[in-house]
Amino acid sequence: MTQNDESRPLATARDVRETLGDMDDATLSAILELRPTIADIEEASVWLSGDRDVFGAGAPLKDVAGEIVSLLSVDDEEGAPRIP
């Protein structure tokens, strides 16, 4: 496990797949290039599962977790987030 500048553990490829589900290698690489923490991928997972109330009504997802959601949503023709 590696760590980012804030001493929070960075997510590994295994962490990403276990939390967000199976994905193609290109998407996995794009997510890992963001250098997400485990908290970032967990936050994205909660958002993708439809539990947006955790973040407040109408509040947009920001930062790395938001970028992860965007990456996982881009493949969907109808624009709905992918649910792991």
Q: Could you estimate the helical fraction of the residues in percent?
A: 40-55%
Question: Roughly what is the average pLDDT, rounded to an integer?
Answer: 80
Number of strands: 0
Compute the CA-based radius of gyration: 12 Å
Main beta-sheet annotation: none
Strand content of the residues, in percent? under 5%
Find the structural class using helix and strand composition. mainly alpha
Alpha-carbon distance between the two ends: 23 Å
Low-confidence stretches: 77-81
Structure report:
The chain has 84 residues and is mainly α. The chain has one domain. Helices cover 46% and strands 0% of the residues. The protein has helices at residues 13-20, 25-33, 38-48, 63-73. Helix 1 packs parallel to helix 3 (38-48) and helix 3 packs across helix 4. The longest helix has 11 residues, at 38-48. It is globular. The chain starts with 12 loop residues before the first helix and ends in an 11-residue tail after the last helix. The model is unreliable at 77-81 (pLDDT under 50).
